[in-house]
Fold each of these.
Amino acid sequence: MAQVLKAPQNFRITGRDRAAQLTWDEVSGAAGYRMFFYDGSEPDKVFKTRYAQGCTRVILGFTNGREYFAEVCAYSVKDGREMLGERSQKVRFVPISLKLTAQKVVCLDLGETAQLFWEEANRVPQASFSSDAPEIVPVDTLGQISGKAEGTAHITITSENRQTFVTRARPFRAPREGCHDVYRGYHVRGQAPAACLRASARLLRFVQAGQGYSLRGGLHRRSA
């Protein structure tokens, strides 16, 4: 009877930008390693697996700010069959981006206002705002923009860590088909998901109070 390989020791995971870096100790007799990933909302259901030949691997395809778990095991091969060893304990990780991000493009009708969203390291930092064309799209101290005239304005967001991000704002006199927000996949036009609206309301309250908040939604607009 073949000996079952022991679980890899010192299994560690570091969250990266939409990715995770996994490392563990070598297991004697292993032909390779197999990793198992779980979404935090379904911690008992494997949603993807990956293989590694060495003792470190960077895995892509995760959502920043979302909770995940992973475990790893060594495997051997006998008569062409993969023989899995003992699995490690599950390790929690949260992908994170240290870069300041926000909507790339916001389209709005004339006379309409929109709330900008921004995040840095999975939180909403203190920020300041400036518009290169306030006669077209002015922006206030809370990151709300207004469509005053047709054209394009560039809104610069500067975080407390002095990182900057530029959002392009475009007011139109009438709705334009295909104009949408490309940040997080939520359309500017039309009704945003309920979770997005709830996140928007909480974000505004925390911004007004000068506190940080983990951003989990898309763009929320309100009429002027």
Note: The first helix runs from residue 194 to 209.
Amino acid sequence: MINDIFKPRSCSSCINAALNVYSNNFKKIFKATWLYILLLSIVQGLSAFIASPIVDNASQAQGSIMPLLEMGAIFVAILLLAVRITSGVVVMLNEAPLMATMKKVLKANLLSIALYIIICMVACGVIVGVAQIGAIQKLPQTAQITIFALFGILL
């Protein structure tokens, strides 16, 4: 019984099976997700449009919190649309209830965002700590560039 469930597979056969699922169900997946993907692209375009004045006015003490609130609202909209798109595809593949799947996908996305924030905080703390003790200045210039490039890739 267990041998029927768990079959040894190579990586290429798993990738081939996944590709077949998407290619065989492309019409169904496209029909179910095109509207949400269109909305997601519009909202992401709005985020770039709203973020440009924030970046331009970063040096000036403007005191207006409205662009930040708008960016927060757009971030939440992007998150919810991404959760809906992912959940829609997952529901088509495993036929689970949509709301239960959306809750699981939302939890996974929020966990990944939290982990990313923690990693960024640790990396920034390391960069500030290294810069404060001056240890980075004792290294050759190529090593300094390499270290900051690695932290840039991490972030």
Note: The CA atoms of residues 89 and 108 lie 15 Å apart.
